[in-house]
Amino acid sequence: MRKIDLIVIHCSATRCNRDFPVTALIRCHADRFGFTGYHYYITRDGTVYQTRHEQLVGAHAKGYNSRSLGVCYEGGLNAQGKPEDTRTKAQKWAMTNLLKYLIKKHPDAQILGHRDLPNVHKDCPCFDVKAEYAGITI
Ligand SMILES: [Zn+2]
Q1: What is the structure's pLDDT at 51?
Q2: Looking at the annotation, which residues are catalytic?
Q3: N or C: which end of the chain has fewer CB within 10 A?
Q4: What's CA 128's distance to the chain center, in Å?
Q5: Burial 69-105, CB ≥16 within 10 A → b, else e
Q6: Nearest to 48, CA basis, from 56, 39, 57, 58
Q7: Ligand 1 mean position to 115 CA, how many Å?
Q8: What confidence tens digit (pLDDT) does each residue in 54-112 have?
């Protein structure tokens, strides 16, 4: 069993008014990595897809993949293509529930946004993860 002590939140960096379904994510990552880099994907309707087995190392946070899980939500760019927290109510609800489930499974894990990791120069996931989820309990 690999030890998971980080849960890293991402956005798909796609526009909030364009669909980026799980099938598109899988295809895109298949081309880039040969597999899906995130473990979970939350579409705008609040559906949670498991896109990679938790025991398999993902490809989402350079230098931290071996010890982390990647959770991505569909969106992160507004209609003009600017970084923005575009999560729908359904996505927020789904994300909270998913994180509660993951924290129960991995009680020592810390929840962070991609941009909170050192040397990450992106806005991903376009909201303050620590402020919103650091205190999450089961
Ligand atoms: Zn990211």
Answers
A1: 98
A2: 10, 38, 114, 122, 124
A3: N
A4: 13
A5: bbbbbbbbbeeeeebbbbbbeebbebbeebbeebbee
A6: 39
A7: 7
A8: 999 999 999 999 999 999 999 999 999 999 999 999 999 999 999 999 999 999 999 99
Cα 48 to Cα 46: distance, rounded to the nearest angstrom: 6
Which pair of tokens denotes residue 116?
């909170």
Residue with tokens 């040969």: 34
Confidence grade of residue 134 (pLDDT, cut at 50, 70, 90): confident
In angstroms, how far is CA 43 from the centroid of its own chain? 11
pTM to 2 decimals? 0.96
76 DSSP β-pair partners: 14
Give the pLDDT confidence score for residue 21 in this predicted structure: 98
Q: How far away, in angstroms, is 8 Cα from ligand 1 center?
A: 8
CA–centroid distance, 11 to ligand 1, in Å, is 6
**Spacing, Cα 104 to ligand 1 middle (Å):** 23
| Residue length of the chain | 138
